[in-house]
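Researcher: Last one for today. Full complex below.
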Amino acid sequence: MTSRRNFLGFSGMSAVLSTVAATSAQAKSTVTPDTNMSNKSNKELGYNPVRTPNGWTLPYTEKDGVKEFHLIAEEIEHEFAPGSTAKCWGYNGTTPGPTIEAVEGDRVRILVTNSLKEHTTVHWHGLILPSGMDGVGGLSQPQIAPGETFAYEFELKQNGTHMYHPHADEMTQMALGMMGMFIIHPKEPEPIDRDYCLLTHNWAMHPGTSRPDPSVMVDFDLWSFNSKVFPAIESIVARTGERVRIRIGNLSMWNHPIHLHGTSFNVTGSDGGRWPKSAWRSESTEIVGVGQTRDIEFVATPGDWAFHCHMSHHTMNAMGHDIPNPTGVNMRGVEEKIRDHLPGFMAMGENGMAEHQQHIDAGHHPGPANTLPMMTGSGPYGPIEMGGMFTTVKVRDDIAPNDFSDPGWYNPPANTIAKRISRNPNYGNPPRKPS
Amino acid sequence: MFYRIDKGLDVKKKSIRTNSLPWVRAMLVIAATSSILGCASFATNNAKNSSKGSTTNSAIAITPAAALAHRVLIEDETPLSADKAVQIALINNQNLAAVYAELGFAKAEVFAGARIRNPLLSFSQLDSNAGIDQIVWGISTSLTDLITLRSRKKLAATQALAIEQKVQAYAMATQAQTYQHYYQYLASKQRLQVFEEISAISDLILETTQRYSDAGNVTALELAEAKIQASEAKLALLNAGAAVLVARTKMSEVLGVRASQNWQIAKQLPIPNKASLYPTDGELGKIPARDTLLRQALEQRLDLQAAQTKIAALKLQLKSHSLENKVGDIELGAEREREADGERLTGPNVEWEVPLFSQGQEDQLKINAELEIAQAQLRQLALELDNAVAMALAGRENSANKIIQYQNHLLPAQANAVARTQEEQFFMLIGVFEVLQSKKQQYQSLLGYVDAVEEYWLANTALAKAVGVSPNIFIDESNNGSRGLEDYLQPDPGTGSPKKSHKHQHHDMHKPQTGPATPTHANHNQAPDNHASHKNHTQSASAKP
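Model: Here's the assembly. Have a good evening.
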């Protein structure tokens, strides 16, 4: 399925590619680019294409047996979720940049045009290549000055889940969103029905501002999968019984224990490719360290399953890091007096933070401009109270192949949903540890 | 610009110009004239009352002026305006009443100037051994008095005018002083209001900190700091209260009433008209250009006129003394004498003090010295006047700019900061203490605003005093939308519900709410219009990027 954005991306890329084709005397043939390569059949592509939720795959042109891609580094307008947009830097109009997908043994040429106002480079993270193609500005190559286009060309000598990012003014350029996934398929197709990739990142999008702050090293405000935060992260959709792989890359500044509910997945690979089965590990949470990639595989089980980083604050949107602890604070009597000076004041958090989303959803109080509430999202049973690196794996019995559309909320079979049996707080006699 | 200030004075052409309110001018003229004409003065009234054995307080209470003041102040429950305060001060200020009494000196001078010494009658009876006495009758009078009568009359009139001008200048000064104390008293009251709010907020910070402490969520240090803050705010409030008492006392002294009496003034300082704050064609509202003001001041300042009149009087005195001393004292008379032998002799008599050894140089020297002193004082007064106009104008402009800065920038920014801080607190990005501190900071900025407005009116008053006019000619209190302190003290509606209408019951979240202004949780599970997007970006409808 081609989304509107993908279509636009395709149109834009067509123009770029046309220009490249017109100026390249060596251009012999082109592969009609499709902005979502995963819409092609495995047979057509020769591999099972990866799907980048909320993202897209970079088309290429074949020239003299070389797959030629074209990246353009530029400032973009990016939406983390409705209510929070920012001036970011990315590639080809998005952050993360489009996923580059190729096959082990391919020779690839990647043109990089710098449309920023400072120099840049691209480092092909984890790839085995000639030193001069490694993309470290000043070390392995001259910087790509604004307006210049550099060509990287090398043979893909491995397969696996990889990434790309600048190695020039890295702190700024990565903090503003310049990154992408580079997926190299093995020559022999793998028995994977659905292949997803997610790139984790963190953003110092201070509440009320509209540009990520590159000077922050610890206290980030937004945590993202593919530069989106819950509830704007697309679900991972699969049909019951399908073998699903999720490739996870980490170009943030924190490690992320990625947790999938409802199944015990296998950790099956990394930037070293798909590991031998003997090396697989059965886990429900896998830490993806900074600069690492991990592949997890599982057989889809019907239901709506949470999929998230297990660092609690990574599944929250912007929140105060130094607020006084309101838990257990009885503000009755004081709250009213404060309201005399500050109409609308509301004390929150005496009995926990859950009420916060209710207040916000009820429209009681607006927050700062261009800021997402720390807890948000509603499910069929009420507020989900999440944010950041949280999405769902939605598995149904009747999902068609290549259908990645959201199937809606899961309707569990009778008697398979937790239910209330009492409203009496003194119900039953739960044992407590004797004192 | 050079102004000739030590010029000859044509007494007849000089009239009292106050350019103040008509009733002020009328009152001054009545007071001056009635005193000159020997009518009962306020001082006389007071003296009479005092002579009846009344105490000072009762004297204030029972004089006609005090009775009038009492009626205006106490019985009329309308808060005292600046103009009304001036009315009361002019009739009831005891220092001014004492100065009015100096008009008696002017009256004495007029009488003295018009006087010729009484004729001298002489009689002598000389015994004779012949049995018949010699009898001599004589009458004489001063020819010099007659010769100098005209010049002495002129001198006396000039001296009387100087006193009159001095009294009127004092009245004008009392008027300016009344305005000054009026604004200072109002400002002190408004500062007290702000300090009350600051103290209330500081108390809330303490109370909130205590609640957090009770929950075990803040340290003993944080609680101690909150206590310090609240205590300091209380001390500042006490100081502000004392300042109000001092200002009220000073105001009451100007009015000639007791501070403890039940009289009230307006609630808030007038806010300068925008036309007064923003210069148009080089002019600030009703304020003319500096050169014009200086010219007006030189023409209108009564103390300047009094100093000029004093110089004129001294010059006349010098001239008169010169004539007297050159002529010497001449006595004209007639004698009738009956000799012992019965012969009768009649004839004129002239006595002349020949100014041979003394021409009254010591008096001349004294008058000359007094003249030089008076001229120096006049020059000093003119210099001070020039400086006072310049300083008052600069002060007015400076305070006007401060008011503009407060009105257009700081206060809106503070209100905005409070609203934005509240938004952050709503999203739990910051805590309650930051919100309270932000509000406290807003109140503290209001203190500066009160200071600026007070400075503005005091500069206006100083300018009027320097120019010699009533301050009210520079005042336009139709503030055409300028916001006063009361407006700023009202809590901003902010981003939440109206004041006190938000009966939030988050401790019983599902209890039904009533009232249209009361936010409820009834719509918790449905997205309001401004949050409609939530529904669209929840998992149930994951939008394509």
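The mean pLDDT of chain A is 90. Chain A touches chain B through 79 residues (CB under 8 Å).
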